[in-house]
Structures are given as structure tokens and as C-alpha cells.
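User: Teach me something about this protein's shape.
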Amino acid sequence: RPRQRRRTSDAARTVEESIRHRDAILPLFTGEQTDALHEILAAIRSNRNSKVFGLIASAGVGKTIFANGLTATLRAQNKIVVCVAASALAAGLLLDGSTAHSSFHIPIPANECTVCNLSQSDRKALRSADLIIWDECSMVNAVALPVTYNLNNNIAGSLRCCQYCGKIYEGCHK
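Assistant: First, the predicted structure itself:
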């Protein structure tokens, strides 16, 4: 019983913390970011098959702030958000971020035949995610994205990528 109470208070603390983050970050959003936030939230609530979004912008325009605001908004609603990035530096800027290689167990080196070695509990955790944000996806090895595409299909249990959750791929492209 004490463990259940502890989990409940930890969950409540996480939601409260997310509300504080959300309330601090959302006022910083531009009108365009606010519109994108609402569109993504609507897509996550809908029954669309594919919920893949690309956030493509130059460096320094607020992609990380947007990702953190979206993350905090969803977590304030007790939703599950997984934040990953190509580098440890970028992952450290995301709310509870980690590297994509760590979260998805992408082996190094990877090739076209590589599979991610996820445990059943890891697969279940990713399947239950409401949103996965992948920052700096353009910086990963060209093989890593197809490997995670195959992982998505494997987790979803169908041939349709990203059916089980929403995803946002962020990158700096010119």
C-alpha cells in the first residue's frame, strides 16, 4: 500500500510539475507555434491513421521551446510523451529527453537489416506513448530512420507506420 500511495503522489507531482512548465512556456509561443500546438493536439485526439509531423526551421527559431511546450501540455493532461534527440546535448535540452539510440535501442553501427533489441516492456511503453518527439532527426545516420520505421511497424503490429501514437520529427534544414 505505501508503494501505491507513493506512485500516486509521484504521478500527481509529475502532472503538477508539467502544469508549471506548461504555464511558463506557452506564453513564449508565437501565434504560429500556438496554431501548430492546437493542430498537433487535435491530431493526437483524432483517429487519423498517421500522425507524423515535421517541424522544419532554421536554428534558433524556437523548435526546442515548442517541443518542451507541447510535451508539458500533454503531460499536464497525464499523457505519455517520449522525447528523444540525435545527440546527448540536444536530448539534455528536452524535458526528460534521452538519445534516440538509447530509447529505441538502436545498435551502433546500424545497417539496413538492423533491428532494435527492445524488451517486451520497452515495446509496451513505446506503444502506450501518446507522442514521440525526435529532435535533430536530420542529424542521425541515414540508416537509423528506416530502422525506427521498422520498429514503429513492429510495435504497432501493422504495416502502417505511427498508427499507435503521434510523432514529431524536428530538424534544421535549409
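Now, about its shape. The helical segments are 2-25, 31-45, 63-76, 88-93, 100-104, 120-127, 144-156. The first strand starts at residue 52 and ends at 56. If you'd like, I can walk through any region in more detail.
User: That's plenty for now, thanks!
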